[in-house]
Each structure stands twice: as C-alpha cells, then as structure tokens.
Amino acid sequence: MTGIIGVSKDEQKGYSAALMKALAFLRAQDFRNMPEGRHEIDGDKIFALLSRYTTRPQAECAPEAHRKFVDVQYVADGEEFLGWCPMSPDLVEMEPYDEARDIIFYRALIPESSILLKAGSYAVLYPEDVHRPGVSVLDEYPADVTKVVVKIDLELMKG
Predict the structure, then answer these.
(1) What is the pLDDT of residues 70-105, one digit of tens each?
(2) How far is residue 31's CA from residue 97's CA, in Å, rounded to a whole number?
(3) Using an 8 Å Cβ cutoff, are 69 and 153 in contact?
(4) What is the pLDDT of residue 72?
(5) Where are the membrane-spanning stretches (predicted)?
(6) CB count in 10 Å sphere of residue 57
C-alpha cells in the first residue's frame, strides 16, 4: 500500500492502530534537523530509522524482505524508485535470513515493479513484499534522499 502523508483520516479508515501511530509520528516530525539513527515510538514494537543517503543504480541495490516487522518507508526529502515483487518460490536468496537484523537479501525481484517515492510519500511493506529500496530514478543521476523507515512489529498489525 502506498500513500501521501497528508491524506485525511477518512482515507485511512481500515488502517491498524499501529499503522496510524506510525503515520502520526511521520506527520509530526521535522526530519531536516533530526539526527540519523533510531527514534523510539513505542519501544521495540514501533520505532523509526532515519537515514540520509545517495540513491544508487538498480544493479547496486539488493532486494530484501523482513519476517518480524512491517516497513513504512517514507521519503522525507528527495525521490527514489522502490522495486517490488510478491514473495515467491522463484526468488533466489543471496544469503541466509539474519534473525538479529530481521533481513534476508535476494538476487533479483521476479517479476519486478517499481514505485516512485517522492518527498511526502510512503509505502507499507509486509513480509510478503520483497523490495529494493534506494534506487536512483535515473541511473546516471544519483540523488540525495532523507528517508525514515518505521518498523512495526508484525503482531501489532494483526486483528
């Protein structure tokens, strides 16, 4: 699911309380002066990771997935392509799942779709959503991005 942070409460009907909490955090912050790193929202159940980086060509960005957390990937400044495909048996792991970091990397997205994330937009990615973040919109023109990834414990998204 993708969206724009400024959408109305009516448009967010059906979102879980945890997702609403994550979006409220994103709406309330000024990320220009916030330091990079981890920011607590609800202990280890909901937290934000703020990073500033330069996008890279698609070939340099590995597809990834998570098992314990849902990602809300929010671009605060800049723009990037977010590659995506559904989890499938066709995907080839690059290395085993890292439980401590809750991440697994894949060789490719099969099939691959791209979502353009511009400043103010977000994507919600569940464990079945394999994704390739940080891709330059134009390979030969990397761009600076400020991104916040809110991690939500999957258990909070159920029921």
Answers:
(1) 999 999 999 999 999 999 999 999 999 999 999 999
(2) 31
(3) yes
(4) 97
(5) none
(6) 12
